[in-house]
Write a structure and sequence with these properties.
The protein has 152 residues and is of the alpha+beta class. It contains four helices and eight strands; from the N terminus they run ααβαβββαββββ. The chain has one domain. It has a six-stranded antiparallel β-sheet with strand order 1-4-8-7-6-5. The N terminus is likely disordered.
Length: 152
């Protein structure tokens, strides 16, 4: 009987890890007016040496990227939804703000969720008021960022 309880507990734990991939993505992926893209680890591995970890010629992120999620708002209503989500991230205690840029109506913010000395999740939020675009990119994995390479 104890073994059955342990197996059930293990299955529940594993399903929570698998199903809890990206709460933001899951929340909006099926919303009318939002384009949603999920790139799983296998596809990232197949892509070989991608430029996801580089800015220019510099390696900025070291470690491994597990999954990539992209949400793009296509309507005014869904843009407001994603902007509200960005505001919630600012208030969240789960995420640390890495950088915020505001320039001529464009807003970019990068948030990180850390575990120990590595970053487990990066969320990049962009808002282009001129083009009326809002995009949220979420990267999961076990990463380290060399912030000194952002300033080149």
């Amino acid at each position: 009987m104890k073994i059955r309880v342990l197996i059930v507990a293990l299955c529940v734990t594993i399903s929570n890890v698998v199903m809890g991939k990206s709460l933001i993505y899951e929340k909006y992926a099926k919303t009318q007016g939002i384009e949603a893209v999920h790139i799983p680890r296998m596809m990232l591995l197949l892509s070989g040496n991608s430029n996801l970890t580089k800015i220019g010629d510099e390696d900025v992120i070291s470690g491994s990227i597990h999954e990539l999620y992209v949400l793009t708002a296509e309507t005014e209503e869904t843009q407001k939804m994603l902007v509200d989500e960005m505001k919630n991230l600012q208030k969240s205690t789960k995420y640390e703000e890495i950088i915020t840029v505001k320039d001529k109506g464009d807003n970019v913010a990068i948030y990180a969720k850390k575990k120990g000395d590595s970053i487990r999740e990066l969320i990049i939020c962009t808002q282009d008021n001129e083009e009326h675009e809002v995009v949220i990119v979420q990267i999961t994995g076990k990463m380290k960022i060399d912030a000194s390479k952002f300033s080149n």
